[in-house]
Automatic annotation (TrEMBL):
This is Uncharacterized protein. Residues 1-24 form the signal peptide. Keywords: Signal. It comes from the Bacteria. It comes from Rapidithrix thailandica.
Length: 176
């Protein structure tokens, strides 16, 4: 084979491989570990889970995420300026399951909760301000790599009508 043809063929092949490999789907945006409420952004640094286990045909996990480190010895956040608390119920009684959890008011007895991912209670609290209760929205939970490493996506409506949106991804301290 002619060396010039070989070099040209090799160059075209490499160019084709490079072009095909660089045309993959765009990687998803990385999780920023923050929430936004009324144009105010808060960093989410740490959190914990309380596993309450089986409850009325569901499995109950409570998620607490804050903007400061969690001190396991004190069993509390270290001087937080903001905390989000959500009590989630997954279908079944053997384990907590990932999924999209929809808000259902505890006073709404007409909604059948059987087999659903839902939450009835959530609070957004900031230092020096009144707690704001969640009155609508969803929380999407994805287990990422280990039993207590989660990705959490918040899309919530607070009692004052403001929207809380954001994400957290990380290992959470676990309590049973």
């Amino acid at each position: 084979m002619n060396p010039a043809k070989f070099t040209k063929s090799l160059l075209c092949s490499l160019l084709l491989i490079f072009a095909l490999s660089s045309c993959s789907k765009k990687d998803p945006d990385p999780v920023k570990n923050e929430i936004t409420v009324d144009n105010q952004t808060y960093s989410l640094l740490d959190g914990y889970i309380i596993d309450y286990g089986a409850y009325d045909m569901h499995y109950n996990f409570d998620f607490y995420i804050g903007d400061s480190d969690y001190d396991e010895d004190k069993e509390d956040f270290v001087d937080p300026s903001m905390i989000i608390y959500i009590e989630l119920f997954s279908p079944g009684t053997t384990e907590f399951k990932a999924g999209t959890y929809e808000f259902i008011a505890s006073s709404n007895s007409s909604v059948d909760r059987e087999g659903k991912h839902f939450f009835e209670f959530g609070v957004f609290a900031t230092k020096g301000e009144s707690e704001l209760y969640v009155e609508g929205g969803t929380v999407k939970i994805t287990k990422v790599t280990s039993e207590h490493y989660f990705e959490i996506h918040y899309d919530l409506i607070l009692e004052n009508g403001k929207i809380l949106k954001g994400d957290y991804r990380g290992e959470l301290t676990y309590f049973k």
